[in-house]
């Protein structure tokens, strides 16, 4: 039940620190080592390429996880929209392994690919929040997100759960391959830092109401920008804003500004910059200058290690591979308050269903 919350979405945003801790408790042992079914790890260990398939927000969670599988487990990873992968299947590696990300476990776009994967005889894993769902029944393996029922149409805690669980899986695979990067990646400590950092943002949720009023109050369009690890988060941040507040929002890679999008910036255009990735922070700062010079109304969300005095939102420091788990929370709250302040039904945006069971 909603309890004291006016909408499920706020409740579900607030549950995220608990979900992070629950995933650590469920999938890590007392020493912080991953506890993943040995058959699943053995199948993954054989793979020469991981194909992550999903739709919408779950697709965005896959984009974040690509770096984890490549850096922690040295497994080449391709992330695709399930629909497009089905229509235009790429030339597959010799030993592919398929990971389906789906909160509901019922998404038709993903299912049509899983049906083919089974016909081809390749191994598959479904990460889902719903035990017994179609995709989990049909895949070779299942890992449950344990996020608790997600009622709001806009996905929040399932997205962060998917990222955290993929981090655990990548760490587990890297450990079986005896990779130093995986061994050094203290996932239990990191998920603790993430949970605390999320809680700090949630405790300040009224600030985001104010920021939403100031930056997104009456606008009909908005941009999120980010580079490196911040790019996939900008896509998810824009989707959240679009789907519940009906603001036309676009997330894009900072470097792409100059390749076209900057022509849309005019006086008062809201631009929200996500800056956590220190390899590229200074480049994103340059983007901020460029759009400000053209009149954009810029809000910056930065991680403490790369933050400046002028940043409106500062995130706790966590391992860069996990920064999306924190940087998405301000975007969820900004979308929530923008929708709320415009008087919309936050949990049931127009034209949308929680599970999309037709292609
Ligand atoms: C957006 C949202 C959708 C879903 C998409 C896939 O907030 O919830 O974009 O992520 O429909 O759904 P699942 O994860 O159930 O396969």
Features:
359 residues, five-stranded parallel β-sheet, globular, binds fructose -6-phosphate
Q: Can you walk through the features of this model?
A:
The chain is of the alpha/beta class and 359 residues long. Helix content is 48%, strand content 15%. The chain has helices spanning 8-14, 16-27, 38-46, 56-73, 82-87, 108-120, 134-138, 157-176, 180-184, 187-203, 205-216, 230-245, 281-293, 324-341; strands at 49-54, 77-81, 96-102, 124-128, 141-144, 221-226, 248-253, 270-275, 297-303, 313-315. The strands form 2 sheets. The protein has a 5-stranded parallel β-sheet with strand order 2-1-3-4-5, sandwiched between helices. β3, α6 and β4 form a beta-alpha-beta unit. The longest helix is centred in the middle third of the chain and has 20 residues, at 157-176. The model has no long low-confidence stretch (mean pLDDT 97). Residues 55-58, 102-104, 107, 154-155, 239, 243, 355-356 line the site of fructose -6-phosphate. Fructose -6-phosphate (F6R) is lined by residues 55-58, 102-104, 107, 154-155, 239, 243, 355-356. One of its GO terms (biological process) is carbohydrate metabolic process.
**Bound heterogens, unique:** fructose -6-phosphate
Q: Can you count the beta strands?
A: 10
Let me know the largest β-sheet. 5 strands, parallel
- The ordered string of helix (H) and strand (E) elements is HHHEHEHEHEHEHHHHEHEEHEEH
Strand arrangement, major sheet: 2-1-3-4-5
Proportion of residues in extended strands: 15-25%
């Amino acid at each position: 039940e909603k309890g004291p919350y006016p909408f499920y979405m706020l409740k579900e945003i607030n549950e995220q620190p608990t979900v992070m801790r629950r995933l650590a408790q469920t999938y890590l042992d007392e020493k912080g080592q991953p506890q993943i079914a040995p058959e699943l790890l053995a199948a993954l260990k054989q793979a020469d390429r991981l194909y992550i398939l999903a739709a919408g927000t779950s697709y965005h969670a896959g984009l974040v996880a690509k770096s984890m599988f490549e850096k922690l487990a040295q497994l080449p990873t391709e992330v695709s929209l399930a629909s497009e992968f089905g229509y235009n299947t790429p030339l597959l590696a010799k030993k592919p392994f398929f990971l389906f990300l789906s909160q509901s476990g019922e998404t038709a776009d993903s299912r049509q690919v899983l049906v083919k994967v089974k016909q081809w005889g390749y191994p598959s894993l479904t990460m889902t929040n719903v035990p017994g769902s179609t995709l989990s029944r049909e895949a070779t393996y299942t890992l449950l997100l344990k996020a608790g029922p997600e009622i709001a149409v806009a996905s929040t805690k399932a997205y962060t759960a998917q990222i955290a669980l993929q981090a655990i899986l990548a760490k587990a695979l890297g450990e079986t391959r005896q990779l130093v990067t995986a061994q050094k990646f203290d996932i239990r400590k990191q998920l603790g830092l993430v949970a605390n950092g999320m809680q700090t943002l949630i405790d300040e949720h009224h600030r985001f109401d104010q920021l939403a009023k100031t930056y997104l109050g009456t606008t009909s369009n908005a941009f999120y920008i980010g580079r490196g690890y911040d790019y996939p988060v900008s896509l998810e941040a824009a989707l959240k804003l679009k789907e519940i507040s009906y603001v036309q929002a676009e997330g894009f890679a900072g470097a792409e500004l100059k390749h076209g999008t900057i022509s849309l910036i005019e006086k008062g255009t809201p631009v929200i910059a996500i800056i956590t990735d220190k390899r590229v922070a200074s480049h994103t700062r340059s983007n901020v200058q460029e759009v400000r010079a053209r009149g954009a109304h810029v809000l910056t969300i930065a991680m403490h290690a790369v933050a400046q005095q002028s940043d409106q939102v500062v995130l706790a420091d966590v391992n860069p591979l996990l920064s999306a788990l924190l940087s998405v929370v301000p975007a969820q709250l900004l979308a929530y308050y923008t929708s709320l302040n415009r008087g919309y039904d936050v949990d049931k945006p127009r034209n949308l269903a929680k599970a999309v069971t037709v292609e």
